[in-house]
Sequence to fold (215 residues):
Amino acid sequence: MLEIIICGIFAYLIGSIPTAVWVGKGFYEVDIRDYGSGNAGATNTFRVLGTWPGIAVLLIDMLKGLLAASLVYLQHEYTWVDQFHWVNLKLIYGGLAVLGHLYPVFADFRGGKGIATLFGVMVAIHYLPALACAAVFLTILLATRYVSLSSITAAISFPILTVVVFQKDNPYFIAFGICAAVLVLFTHQKNIKRLLLGSESKANIYRKKKSHGIR
Fold:
C-alpha cells in the first residue's frame, strides 16, 4: 500500500509539470496563460508561440501521462498479480497525472485541459484504442479545423471503441473511458458554447506566431 501511495504522489507530480508555462517563460519570457485562450496546453502554445514549441509541449505532455501510468512497473510487490490489477493501477496513476496537469502544484494550480496527457495514459493502458482515437481526432480536425471539437469527439469515441470494437470487458477500464469523456466535456464547456455560437477559433498551426510582445 505504501508503494501505491508513493507512486500516486509521483504520478501527480509528473502530471503537474507545466510544460507550456515553462517553455513560454524559459524561451520566450512570457506566461502562455496571459495570451491566446489563456490555457496552459499544447493548442494554445501552437497558437501563441508557433509550431515547434507547440510540438514540444504536445509530446512532453503526452509523455507525462505515459510515464505516470508506467510507474506500475516499479512496484515489485505487484509483479505477481494478473493483468487486471496492473491495468487498474495504471488507471489510478494515469488519472492522477491528468489531475496534476489540470491543477499543477508547480504553476499555481492553473493548468491545461489534459487532452495530451490523457492520450499518453490511453497509450500506456491500451495503445490500439488510443491510436483509433487519434485517427478520429485527426479526421475531425482535417474536416473542421476545430481542435476542441476534435478532442471532444475523440474522447467520446474512446469508451465506445473500447467496448464495441476492441471488446474490452474490464469494468474499471470502461469506467475510466466514460470518466475521461465526461472530463473532456467539462473542461471544454466554453469551447462547446463557442462552437454552438459559431465563434470558436479554427486551428492554423502552420502560421507564424503572433507577436503579442513576444521576443
Observations:
- Residues 209-213 have pLDDT under 50 and may be disordered.
- The CA atoms of residues 8 and 93 lie 6 Å apart.
- The first helix runs from residue 2 to 15.
- The chain has one domain: 2-197.
